[in-house]
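Quick log. Single chain, no ligands specified.
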Amino acid sequence: MTAALPAVALASPVFVDTSVLIQSEDGAFPDRREQVMAWLRVLWQQRLGRVSSQVLNEFYRTITTRIQPPMPNGDARAEVRRYQRWAPWAVDHATVESAWSLESRFNLPYTDALIVAAAKVQGCELLLSLTLPHQQLFDSVTIINPLLAAPAGVPATTSAERSA
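-> predicted structure:
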């Protein structure tokens, strides 16, 4: 018997990066997609999801050009419009300055630092990402890999349990 994924309590808005949104649309790995979808459902239900204009732009570009088969542009636009309800942060000068600081202090690639900075400015303590290191703390923002933890209150199983 394998253990359930650790639960993460949600007390403030949660920033969702591009990799998570892409995984929610990619059917190549159904178990991964379902775990990501469990997180997104909770964020929608509790109105805690946050993104940035950078995330939505990268999401649109990727799902229309880099996944196979690509999503039709009209469908991709509808998805971006849906995530507009999460009040995407428009990157401004202060966010860029914060990103430069994060880039220098944590040796982050600039685009990742910009995502962490956007999460910080929106008051997010958690940032869902499939690419940044799980449980890494960047100032006040903790990275959570949605494949390695589950939102509190949602039954979660490991991939081995789902395969059984």
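Residues 7-163 form a domain with the Rossmann fold fold (CATH 3.40.50.1010).
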